[in-house]
Amino acid sequence: MPILFVPYHLDEYQAELRAALPPGTDTTEVTAQLPPGADVWGRLTALYETVAREVAHADEKTVVSGDCTISIAMAAGLQRAGLDPAIVWCDAHGDVQTLETTSSGYLGGMALRLLMGYRADLLAGRLGLRPPSEDRVVLVDARDLDPPEAEYLASSRVRHVSVADLPSIELPSGPILLNLDLDVINPAELPGLRYPAPGGPGIPAVLQAARTVLATGRVAAVNIACTWDPSRPDPDGARRRVLSELLA
């Protein structure tokens, strides 16, 4: 199965991510000329515009990337292809921080909120993205929430469910964009994660959750976000095994 390989963590190119791809994986590497001297939003816009264009025209819309923010570009690309995707977002974290609530300033912690239209002037508006309504978003796991994220989710129409609950719920209608952040996996089973969240489901449960969503026959695109530090060791090859299973 051909995939789009986007080896970036935010605006940082990381060729080392390729080491976890199974041998012989059919890839098209997506890179962009990021404008020197631009702020991070300008650099991300340049990258995401390229990704959106590639996704819009690709026959197989499976992406392996370095973080979840790539899904913002993928949603824009699907819309350019005439699709209006609902979002199934599997992640150990909520990714619904804002510039006003974040204590770390980490933009990856805002990925889902940006996709849903927060501060559209920063990314969504530049990409021509029409944000999905909250009731078309399912957040899966997100066991590590900061208080502002928990407060937002409690008052929003985003559905927050566990991995175990996923097979029993009705997913939003229409095409689906599946964002699968591999830090949803228990960090005891997947080494070197940038932001490990203790506990959580094991690899078999996460693979089954992905199969559940794929079995709907409505998945239009998948982002497999490899949110580990590629410079850290993976002595047992867990990263490659997980990718092999998902790409199969």
Description:
This protein is 28% helix and 19% strand. It is an alpha/beta fold and 248 residues long. The protein has one domain: Ureohydrolase domain (Arginase, Chain A). The strands form two sheets. It has an eight-stranded parallel β-sheet with strand order 4-1-5-10-9-6-7-8, with helices on both faces. A two-stranded antiparallel ribbon has the order 2-3. Helix 1 packs across helix 2. The radius of gyration is 16 Å and the shape is globular. The model has no long low-confidence stretch (mean pLDDT 97).
The CATH topology name reads Arginase, Chain A
Largest sheet: 8 strands, parallel
Lateral arrangement of strands in the main beta sheet? 4-1-5-10-9-6-7-8
Number of strands: 10
Label the structural class. Answer: alpha/beta
User: What would you give as the CATH superfamily?
Assistant: Ureohydrolase domain
Tell me briefly what this model is.
This protein is an alpha/beta fold. The chain has helices at residues 40-57, 70-80, 111-115, 124-127, 147-155, 203-214, 238-247; strands at 3-6, 8-9, 12-13, 27-29, 62-65, 86-93, 137-144, 159-161, 176-181, 219-225.
